[in-house]
Amino acid sequence: FHFAALKSVPESEKNPDLYKKNNVEGTKKLLSLMQTLSIKRIIFSSSAAVYGNQEIQPIKETATLNPKSVYAKSKKLSEDLIEKHAEIDSLKAISLRYFNPIGTHEDYVITDNFEGFNGNIMAMLIRVATGLENKLYIYGDDYPTADGTGERDYIHINDIVDGHFKALEKLELIDEYEVYNLGTGSYASVLELIQILEKVNGLKIDYQITSRRPGDLARSYADPSKANAELNWEARYNLETMCKDAWEAIKNGVN
């Protein structure tokens, strides 16, 4: 399981060389070492960011990739490297394109990291809820969406974890290389996410609209039908549960 990568759209725009070195060159070195050690199986943690702006929504795995941010491009290049090795080196490989994981694992093994500035929406919301920040900055309310803020397919981290176990079961049955979306097939705007987080947890989140960030998209949500059919996997948790679980961990002192 290859999870190792830097993951922040704003940071990647400020420091592209770091993302190329860590994410892309790191993947290249890993594949070289796998070849040396005759390791023939890999599941890669990719991202829906590789799709970029897509006119046809929900997004299928067959969509033409159009990564916008440096981070997204690093994920696409890593996928390309893995697919190439699968073709020439008898490698069985799966890339899982996550949409927007939030929430907390049921055993508190994985929680939202809110201590740094990684650009993740739930982490930023938690920073406001805990008093680390005075307000959430919403980057743009002039997108062609229902309320003008960006719309995303949020998925519970438990569902992401389950997707990896399903992919592991599938790995021996594929020929070389496969790609699967891990998403719910629905979307919510930033404002809707804030409202739900406030409602289920009794919180008040102050926010301010500011200008768009480079690399951000108007809307992105998954067509998970391939994973549903071929991995026997589907997302089980709704957005209310994601928001409840995300805050419960922080409230209970888990970080």
Strand percentage: 15-25%
- Give the low-confidence spans: none
Element pattern in H and E: HHEHEEHEEEHEEHEEHH
Largest sheet: 3 strands, parallel
Could you tell me the radius of gyration in angstroms?
A: 18 Å
User: Helix coverage percent of residues?
Assistant: 25-40%
Number of strands: 10
Instruction: Give the CA-based shape.
Output: globular
Arithmetic mean of pLDDT: 93
Strand order of the largest sheet: 1-2-7
Number of helices: 8
Spatial separation of the terminal alpha carbons: 23 Å
Structural class: alpha/beta
Short description:
Helix 2 (16-36) packs parallel to helix 3 (70-88) and helix 6 (190-201) packs across helix 8.
Notes on the structure:
- The chain is an alpha/beta fold.
- About 40% of the residues lie in helices and about 15% in strands.
- It has 8 helices and 10 strands.
- The strands form 4 sheets. The protein has a 3-stranded parallel sheet, with helices on both faces. It has a 3-stranded mixed sheet with strand order 8-5-10.
- Helix 2 (about 15-35) runs parallel beside helix 3 (about 70-90) and helix 6 crosses helix 8.
- About 40% of the residues are buried.
